[in-house]
Amino acid sequence: TVKHLFFSSQQEEKLNSINEAFLSDPQYAEEEDLASKLEMFKKKYMEFDLNDKGEIDIMGLKRMLEKLGLAKTHLELKKMMSEVVGGTSKDTISYNDFLNMMLGKRNAILKLILMFEGMGKEQEPKSTGPPQRKTFSDLP
């Protein structure tokens, strides 16, 4: 829809300006390929269903994980969110929170899931069509 497109481009502008701020942040001056990482993180963030403030809420997180085949309980989702936002009782993940998680030293569960999912995409070509049939000889 037109509204959605407008929202996304406006949204992207906002994310771009946050990326700019990270690029000039001395804390990340040592980070290799920071610009391309930020671009990649921005695309990943925009894959989530964002709420009207452009943040990831618990439903957006739930849907994203379900798309990845990782359904989580409400409690697990809340724990994942509090890990990202640093234990505060915020119920959304902002883009700043997201970048701090992806670039930070702490290994939040969500970060590990997204990194793992990203690596899997690059290495193995997705086979289209039905999965290979298993035979008895395939069993361990």
UniProtKB/TrEMBL annotation:
Membrane topology for this entry? Answer: Peripheral membrane protein
Question: InterPro entries given for it?
Answer: AIF-1_EF_pair, AIF1/AIF1L, EF-hand-dom_pair, EF_hand_dom
Supply the PROSITE patterns for this chain: EF_HAND_2
GO MF term set: actin filament binding; calcium ion binding
User: What is one cellular component GO term in this UniProt entry?
Assistant: ruffle membrane
Principal cellular location given in the protein's record: other
Which Pfam family, any one of them, does this sequence belong to? AIF-1
Where found in the cell?
Answer: Cell projection, Phagocytic cup; Cell projection, Ruffle membrane; Cytoplasm, Cytoskeleton
**Domain EF-hand intervals:** 36-71
What is an annotated GO biological process for this record, any one? ruffle assembly
- Give the UniProt keywords, A-Z: Acetylation, Calcium, Cell membrane, Cell projection, Cytoplasm, Cytoskeleton, Membrane, Metal-binding, Phosphoprotein, Repeat
Entry-linked SUPFAM superfamilies: EF-hand
Region of interest (Disordered), ranges: 121-140
The protein in question is named: Allograft inflammatory factor 1
